[in-house]
Amino acid sequence: MKLAEFYRDATGECNYNVTISRNNTKQEGCSSRSGCFDCLRVQRDKSAEQLSKNKQYEYLKPLLHIRQFLSDIERDWSRRNLLGRTLYSGFSRLRPDVFDFNTCRTLLAALITADVDEDNRAYKVAEQIESGQIEDNPANRYLSKPQFRHVMPKDVIGVEMM
Predict the structure, then answer these.
(1) Which of 117, 115, 139 is nearest to 128 (CA)?
(2) What's the pTM value of the predicted model, to 2 decimals?
(3) What is the DSSP string of the chain?
(4) What does each C-alpha distance from 129 to 122, 123, 140, 153 come to in angstroms?
(5) Which pLDDT does position 8 carry in this prediction?
(6) pLDDT tens digits for range 88-110
(7) Does residue 46 contact residue 30 with C-beta atoms inside 8 Å?
(8) What was the pLDDT predicted at 35?
(9) Which is nearest to 34 in space by CA: 3, 65, 69?
(10) Residue 45 near residue 39 (C-beta atoms within 8 A)
């Protein structure tokens, strides 16, 4: 998928979206944004929500669930370590900082699940192409490949070493 196509299909405020539209006419944004799935700078990711309604971008749905979870716990200080990694002039402050171990484990499990689900989704599309259930075209071929991978084997090994 080309970046311009992604932004054109979104309904966000990106300059790509404002200046590029399907019929080359100016299109106004809807005050949302498009970017990292876990960005909490805005309360709702309207662009990704809108895109996920399109079959071509359904793979965004699990990422939106993880984003919602992050948004729900962002200010839940009971899920934070009181002594974190952040240093201030060489010292650490005693106050809620990074997520605690159990929250990190929950997030890791959610990301691994999303990765596996995405692999399975892509495999099903590939099977449907091969069996003739869906058309064999570049868009479907593209969707027959996983669209994201968040947790790599080396990441899991790193967590195990902690």
Answers:
(1) 139
(2) 0.71
(3) --HHHHHHHS-SS-HHHHH--TTSS-----S---S-TT--SSSS-HHHHHHHTSGGGGGGHHHHHHHHHHHHHTT-GGGB-SEEEEEETTEEEES--SBPHHHHHHHHHHHHHHHHHHHHHHHHHHHHHHHTSS--SHHHHHHTS-S-----HHHHHHHHT-
(4) 11, 10, 8, 29
(5) 55
(6) 888 887 878 889 989 999 999 99
(7) yes
(8) 59
(9) 3
(10) yes
Q: What is the mean pLDDT of the chain?
A: 80
Encode pLDDT of 100-144 as tens digits.
989 999 999 999 999 999 999 999 999 999 999 999 999 999 999
Task: Phi first, then psi: give them for residue 61, nearest 5 degrees.
Answer: -55, -50
Please calculate the CA angle 82-84-85 and round it to the nearest 5 degrees: 175
CA-angle at 34, arms to 123 and 156, nearest 5°: 50
Are residues 101 and 84 in contact, defined by beta-carbon separation less than 8 angstroms?
Answer: no
137 token code pair? 């075209």
